[in-house]
Design a protein that fits this description.
By secondary structure, this protein is α+β, with helices and mostly antiparallel strands. It contains five helices and 14 strands. Strand 5 (123-133) and strand 6 (139-150) form a beta hairpin. The longest helix is centred in the last third of the chain and has 33 residues, at 227-259. It starts with a helix and ends with a helix.
Length: 260
Amino acid sequence: MEGNKGRSYIGYIILGIIASCFIYFILWVIFKDKMPLHEYAYEIANNYDSYAEKAIIIIPLAVFVLIFITLMKPGAGKRFLRLQSSLPTSKIHSVAKGLVEIEGALIMKDPLSSPVKNEVCIGYYYTIEDIERDSDGKESYRTIHRETQCNVFQVTDATGTIDVEAEGIELVLLGETNISSHSGKRYKETLLKDGQKMLLVGYADSKNGVPFIRKDEHYKILGITSASGITVWNKYQPLLRSFMFTCSIILLIIIYILTQ
């Protein structure tokens, strides 16, 4: 399951750049020509209005580029969604070697105990978050730990049953099953349980003539999601893409107008 680790690092980098610029400005006001890059700072200070006009254009453009890079950045979840939208759903009895998509009910073979509620499950995605409160008492959360655990399980449909070697599995678009908060921390878990109807994308392989599914080493993907949830996603994803494209065009038009 995609976390917020990468986005957190980007946020810290942006805040670090802003803080560094602010500190440099304070030091430049005090020491002036003793500071490095004094000539550039002096030029900006003497032509503040001109640079402010440029900033009005550059800042929205930079934000747009940053959002675009973030959305386009590859990840296991994005790869799963892209691949499942193009793969046909195979019947388990007739899976061929290679990248496949199957749909069926989960069968537990080696149970686990979930970390939050101690529920019996096939596997789980577990996170611990620090709870932070601002001066108004509004809560925010920062992830400090995440882990995925999953044992070997089976998927069955009307045509047959197949084993899934779960090492490297990614839980995609699955909501939290249980949430608990205490001692300034929030604990969340998403569970895979016996009998759930799921859609799985992975690599169909065989061992001693017996087929099984594992992580695909080329696409770096072994993903699982709710069969009903992915149907909704596939239905509305084109609308989301159209919305993002329209917003991009509007932003570019606004920037063009501002430059005239």
